[in-house]
Amino acid sequence: MLPSARSIIPRQRDGPAVKNPILLEFISEIARLAADETDESIMCAHALTRAREWIPAANAGGVWLYALDADALQCCASQGYAAAMPREINIPPGKSYGRVFSSGKAIRCATITQVRELVNTMPSAARALYQTAAEVAYPSSAIVAALHTADAKLGVIALEKLRGTRPFTANDLQKLKTLAALYAFALAHARLRRALYQAQTTKETATARAESVSFLAHEMRTPLTSIKGYATALMIENVHFDAATQREFLEQIDRECDTLIQLIQDLLESAVLDAGLLELKREPLRLPRLVQEVIDDIRLTTTQHRFLVEFPRAFPLVQADPARLTQVLRNLLENAVKYSPRGGLVVIHGESQPNQITLSIADQGIGIAPEHLNRLFEKFFRAKTGPAQATIGSGLGLPIARSIVTAHGGKIWAESVLGKGSAFYVTLPLEPADNALE
Ligand code: ADP
Hints:
The protein is an alpha+beta fold.
């Protein structure tokens, strides 16, 4: 729970809580910091700067935050020493500044003896920072306040006087305590926001993972059931199928295995892309030829579909990875066939503009509902309505295609009229040298 503003804003004896204009300015600044900032070192540096402005007697200081894994205070920001205080220096609770952390009670060292007692219990690496080129200059005075809220001990803020002899006053300590309370509030608030964000992301990741596992299990069940059915039928001892039927069953098993392999390949491919492992091997590419090669392959799988390829006679070479672009074309063309169950014409059209080429693949298939159009490129999205639900797929083909096209610096999108057909568009940028025509 966060501390209430009441508990941290100092009350004056009568009247409203805060009259001091400097303090009011700090409060609004810290409130902004608490709302926008999550980086603790920025917040700690901010606290130190403001503390030194408000308490000008200080010429050095540090903010030390408690690190649970080290069970020690570690320096998150320091100013005014011969060098920056290294973060690895650990001050145990109960020792030196750690006394303030454990007890929550601020301290003021006004005499050299008190300062020595405070400094001498610090790790030697911390003490070394008082060493300037010429001498060891321990502070003549120091004030330390706890960065605590009602629910959490966060650390301490320390100010020191390295030059000059007039010690910090009780008023200085009061100011530091006020600032410490305000910054503790901001730090606690930022931690809470981070924890909330992490909890939310963990939950979203877990939900997405569970959804994808159940999605794939569902998609795999259909081909597996079919394979099992045909294989079991072929093994029944007393039933004899003629050669043609046996062949038909085996072909069916073969096709379903291909479907399963495709699902698994999409899944692996998607994991590779998610991990940022896509490496493009670009080379000057003749797109019309690549399209033709993919169509020649797909033509073997269907007798119901016709393909029309339209490219201007002179078409620029594009700098692209042939294997990856083949993957995109294959996915778009296979979809054009898969989602046109009654066959029809598939038109592949290419055109070039000064800075890019545009490729479109249009079919006369089932089409896509307007509310699904902008979800097509989401992972595992499949239209659950109409004839599309009868087909098997990973819902990963289009997201994979988009990752590849985007990695090439291009764009991909779809247009469609439900029941009439769909068109997918791909653009790829042309580098000045690509404008050399084929
Ligand atoms: P999959 O085809 O494996 O389901 P994709 O990512 O390739 O996965 O496609 C996602 C969804 O987009 C498909 O399930 C389908 O609903 C829709 N879709 C893709 N291409 C077409 C198309 N040419 N015509 C109609 N719907 C399509």
